[in-house]
Structure formats: structure tokens, C-alpha cells
Amino acid sequence: xxxxxxxxxxxxxxxxxxxxxxxxxxxxxxxxxxxxxxxxxxxxxxxxxxxxxxxxxxxxxxxxxxxxxxxxxxxxxxxxxxxxxxxxxxxxxxxxxxxxxxxxxxxxxxxxxxxxxxxxxxxxxxxxxxxxxxxxxxxxx
Length: 141
Prior knowledge:
Blueprint: H1 16-32, E1 59-64, E2 70-72, E3 75-77, H2 82-90, E4 97-102, H3 108-120, E5 126-128
Parallel strand pairs: 1-4, 4-5
Antiparallel strand pairs: 1-2, 2-3
């Protein structure tokens, strides 16, 4: 470039700001994903030392509310359609896991009946969700 000549424009794309924004959004979604589970509010029973709950992928959440109503993920379902609803909730998942979240005011018999219905629908190994003593309600748990 000589003195008095107009400067040529360089047409280049700077992707650094784009990568920064994408990474920030990725972190936000990773933090918020566990709280996005929907379903009815239930009071979870306390336990002395529950193990980690693991990730949420491939899990079918069965919730039993304080009145004994059955929910699959965020849909209430009639007891006579429970098995069909579970099989429909599997979708294309190859190794589905069923996790039960029940209100602490229910009797163990109510929870056991739901677990038997899950087993009768063809699912093996049901997980139970509990909370640590002193843990506050968060995200519908």
C-alpha cells in the first residue's frame, strides 16, 4: 500500500465471538437440563445416604402423587392403561430405565403395586428417587 492509495478491504469472518456464544449456551443448557423435568409436585421420602441419581438420558420417570395417581413423565395416566403407556414412552430407546418418584405420604403398598405393574409391562430393575436429609425441594423434586 502506497501513500495516497485507498486501503483494500479484507473480507474475513471472525468466528471467535461465535464460538464464545455457542460455548456459553452449551454450558447454560447443561446446567438447566436436569431442572427441566416436569411432572406433579411430590414430597420425596428422606433416606440416610442415597447414591447419585445418574444422568437423565434414557429414563422413564414414573411419578405417584399423594392421591396415588400415576404419571409417566409429565402425563397423568389411568391405572388400566399404565403398561401400554410405559411401552409407548420407550420410543426408540434400546435400554430404557424406569425410575419411580413417589410421595412420602403414600404407603409402601401403593409404591409396590406400581413397581409390580412396571415389571408386568416387561421392564426389569426399577430405580427409586429419594432425597438426602435436609435437602430442600428443587425443580419439582
